[in-house]
């Protein structure tokens, strides 16, 4: 982190003209070295996982073991066909999509009400929504477990999605964005007699496209990575999600036969959907964060 | 065709009084400008008219219909905002038609026809397929105007529509707005902080301060016969000079000079306070108001009389068409508009003459006008004579 800060400072100084061109070139080298270190630190575990997923046993004892092996196709085939990992991935995808869509719908309505309507004790309501950040799902496991059983939802997709639908973070980000939309636009719509639903669909949502996409990506990755709650509430293998499913790839652990190569193949597969989303939607994602900084 | 009447209109935001009981009648087809410094309540008044704010007290009547509690969309008014308020993701055409389509009062053919008409009036046909991002400020404001006129509203409400444009474009758009109003004849209420805009555009101008109306009059009347000190200083650039004086025998006595007041027995033409009861008394303290352009170098016009006063020049500002002098008359600061290219330097002492027909007296406490040296009636008869001559 210090390196990044130093870099930022140097760039500012350089822009101010305190550094000669020669120095900037040297600084660039240093900067690239720092960036390279950071990238290696982030990528290394993933590279190891990738390499191990192509091995027969996947036990790494020397540097040579990190070279790619020749069992890639077999490992991935075994994971997807024999262990039906595709089924887990599908469940994960369904869960994540339902959570993202549900969150967006609820949060858009909530943020719209908070920003554009005269609700009594509006600020208090918003404060209460923010307060729920102090009580994340893991804190509520025991009452939630009871509730899901009472509702008869355990082992269903409802159990792993509904508790996540309300999101203080999303409401907050959308509220900030809605507040940044000029009031005169809202007032023009009011004068024109544009109804609230029409206003939302034709004005608010199109003007919030970037933020909505950015928030969706963050929420998707968050939902996709859920582990503990599905582990607790889902006990049938057919309904299980990928993050928990990885455990089933371990094989005969008691017999000392932990099949790391299969686990890593599964991990690599699990990594792909969020990675693809991140790559495709990196622009709106960055915009979302830059809006928060405003 | 709409007459709008405001009765004792009042708006409070928590403990701040934005509009403090104003009465105003806006005549059908009139171009009325509301002007005042920021925070004077002019925008709030406009927003009350639009229905975007709820009045705390008082009533708004449009064509005999009390609309005080009526929803904005049911008032049939169109508003133009300072920041244009165009939907950024819609083309010019969709921006114009979106509101009409939403209201559902118009058929598609009707909408198309009206858009074509508006596009022709405002010369925006080539902007209809562009998004606001690809338009300049002036073009955006034109599309916003188009959106306002297609609905054929009973009244246009404009909230500083030209303030975001650069100076040159502002002057051009000002002329276009005046032209547009002439051709449409729709009642227009226009809010601005710029007194030049107010003077050039308004058929009548409302000057507001601290939530109250200071004066409502035609622009030239506002300038020539300000009802109080605030209007006198607000209208006109550079502002009117204010010199504290004592009244003695029909003369204004200052530490540094004595000025004979013409028609000193006359009163002030000021709405209800017609001449007589507000006239000046001997021994009274007052503030003498005289505009910088009504003061000039005695040497420039030697035959205007021998009453002169002496002033010390502090700073000179060449404005091109004139030379603005910041002077002191006695202890009182004062501005004088001298001829351009005058050979005057700081620390010079100059002899100043004044136009005796352009003197004003104000009450030092209340600020109300006590006296204008030219009576309103005589200025009107002079104007009439000029018309006939």
From TrEMBL, chain A:
SUPFAM superfamilies: MetI-like (SSF161098). Keywords: Cell membrane, Membrane, Transmembrane, Transmembrane helix, Transport. GO terms for biological process: transmembrane transport. It is a multi-pass membrane protein. Pfam families: BPD_transp_1 (PF00528). One of its GO terms (cellular component) is plasma membrane. Residues 89-281 form the ABC transmembrane type-1 domain. Belongs to the binding-protein-dependent transport system permease family. This is sn-glycerol-3-phosphate transport system permease.
TrEMBL record, chain B:
Residues 4-235 form the ABC transporter domain. The keyword Membrane applies. InterPro entries: AAA+_ATPase, ABC_transporter-like_ATP-bd, ABC_transporter-like_CS, ABC_transpr_MalK-like, ABC_transpr_MalK/UgpC-like, Mo/tungstate-bd_C_term_dom, NA-bd_OB-fold, P-loop_NTPase. GO terms for biological process: carbohydrate transport. Gene3D superfamilies: 2.40.50.100, Nucleic acid-binding proteins, P-loop containing nucleotide triphosphate hydrolases. It catalyses: D-xylose(out) + ATP + H2O = D-xylose(in) + ADP + phosphate + H(+); L-arabinose(out) + ATP + H2O = L-arabinose(in) + ADP + phosphate + H(+). Keywords: ATP-binding, Cell membrane, Membrane, Nucleotide-binding, Translocase, Transport. PANTHER family: MALTODEXTRIN IMPORT ATP-BINDING PROTEIN MSMX, TREHALOSE IMPORT ATP-BINDING PROTEIN SUGC. Part of the ABC transporter complex XacGHIJK involved in the uptake of xylose and arabinose. Responsible for energy coupling to the transport system. This is ABC-type D-xylose/L-arabinose transporter.
């Amino acid at each position: 982190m210090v390196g990044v800060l130093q870099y930022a400072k140097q760039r500012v100084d350089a822009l101010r003209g305190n550094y000669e061109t020669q120095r900037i070139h040297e600084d660039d080298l240093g900067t690239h070295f720092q960036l390279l270190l950071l990238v290696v630190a982030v990528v290394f575990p993933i590279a190891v996982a990738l390499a191990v997923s192509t091995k027969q046993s996947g036990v790494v004892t020397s540097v040579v073991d990190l070279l790619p092996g020749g069992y890639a196709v077999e490992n991935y085939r075994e994971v997807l066909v024999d262990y039906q990992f595709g089924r887990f991935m599908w469940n994960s995808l369904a869960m994540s999509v339902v959570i993202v869509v549900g969150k967006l719908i609820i949060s858009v309505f909530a943020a719209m009400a908070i920003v554009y309507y005269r609700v009594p004790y509006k600020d208090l309501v918003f404060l209460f929504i923010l307060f729920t950040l102090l009580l994340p799902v893991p804190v509520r496991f025991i009452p939630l477990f009871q509730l899901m059983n009472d509702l008869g939802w355990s082992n269903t997709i409802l159990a792993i999605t509904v508790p996540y639908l309300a999101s203080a973070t999303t409401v907050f980000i959308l509220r900030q964005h809605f507040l940044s939309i000029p009031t005169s636009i809202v007032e023009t719509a009011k004068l024109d007699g544009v109804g609230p639903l029409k206003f939302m669909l034709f004005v608010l949502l199109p003007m919030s496209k970037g933020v909505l996409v950015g928030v969706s990506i963050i929420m998707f990755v968050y939902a996709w990575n859920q582990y503990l709650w599905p582990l607790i509430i889902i006990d049938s293998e057919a309904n299980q999600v990928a993050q928990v499913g990885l455990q089933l790839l371990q094989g005969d652990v008691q017999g000392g036969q932990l099949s790391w190569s299969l686990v890593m193949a599964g991990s690599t597969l699990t990594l792909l959907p969020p990675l693809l989303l991140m790559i495709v939607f990196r622009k709106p994602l960055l915009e979302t964060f830059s809006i928060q900084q405003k | 065709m709409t007459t709008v009447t405001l009765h004792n209109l009042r708006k409070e935001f928590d403990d701040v009084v934005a509009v403090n009981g104003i009465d105003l009648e806006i005549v059908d087809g009139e171009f009325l400008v509301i002007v005042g410094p920021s925070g004077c309540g002019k925008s709030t008044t406009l927003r009350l008219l639009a229905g975007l704010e709820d009045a705390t007290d008082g009533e708004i009547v449009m064509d005999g219909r009390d609309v005080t509690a009526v929803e904005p969309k049911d008032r049939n008014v169109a508003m133009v905002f300072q920041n244009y308020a165009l939907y950024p993701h819609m083309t010019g055409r969709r921006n114009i038609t979106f509101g009409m389509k939403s209201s559902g009062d118009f058929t598609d053919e009707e909408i198309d026809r009206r858009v074509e008409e508006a596009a022709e009036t405002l010369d925006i046909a080539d902007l209809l397929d562009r998004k606001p991002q690809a338009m300049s400020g002036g073009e955006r404001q034109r599309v916003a105007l188009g959106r306002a006129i297609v609905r054929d509203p009973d009244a246009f409400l404009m909230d500083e529509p030209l303030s975001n444009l650069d100076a040159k474009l502002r002057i051009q758009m000002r002329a276009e707005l005046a032209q547009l109003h002439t051709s449409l004849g729709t009642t227009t209420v226009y809010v601005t902080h710029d007194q030049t805009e107010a003077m050039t555009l308004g058929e009548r101008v409302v000057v507001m301060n601290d939530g109250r109306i200071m004066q409502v009059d035609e622009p030239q009347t506002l300038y020539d016969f300000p009802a109080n000190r605030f209007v006198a200083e607000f209208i006109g650039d550079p502002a009117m000079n204010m010199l504290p004086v004592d009244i003695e025998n029909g003369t204004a006595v200052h530490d540094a000079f004595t000025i004979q007041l013409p028609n000193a027995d006359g009163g002030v033409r000021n709405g209800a306070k017609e001449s007589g009861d507000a006239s000046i008394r001997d021994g009274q303290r007052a503030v003498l108001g005289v505009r910088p352009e009504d003061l000039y170098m005695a040497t420039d016009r030697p035959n205007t009389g021998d009453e002169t006063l002496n002033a010390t020049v502090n700073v000179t500002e060449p404005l091109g068409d004139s030379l603005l002098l910041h002077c002191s008359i006695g202890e009182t600061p004062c501005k004088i508009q001298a001829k351009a290219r005058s050979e005057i330097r700081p620390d010079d002492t100059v002899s100043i003459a004044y136009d005796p027909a352009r003197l004003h007296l104000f009450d030092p406490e209340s600020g109300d006008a006590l006296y204008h040296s030219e009576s309103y009636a005589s200025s009107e008869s002079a104007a009439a004579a000029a018309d006939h001559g």
